[in-house]
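Throughout our pipeline, every protein is held as a single compact record rather than as scattered files. Nothing more is needed to write down the fold, since each code stands for a local backbone conformation. The record that follows is passed on verbatim for readers who wish to inspect the format.
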Amino acid sequence: MTKSKFVIDKLAKLFEQGLISYRDLSSEILSILKSKRDEIVFKMKLTSKEEHDILIKRVENLEKKLSKLKKNNLKKRPIKVKKS
């Protein structure tokens, strides 16, 4: 119950501050959830803070490379036409 109360309190603060834009609201919600996730990982002591930060950077770099590869493959892919 305390976890849901934490999220509700954060959302109430957002509305009080006047965040009207959907993008601002969604980015704030995502940042709250990410911080909560990080907090849980640290409590479980799965990784240290430094290891966690390094892993996050590696994942971000891999996601960027993957998106670049997808864009390149879409551009280079030839169009195949069926012969009848």
User: Anything to note?
Assistant: The chain has three helices and no strands. The mean pLDDT is 78.
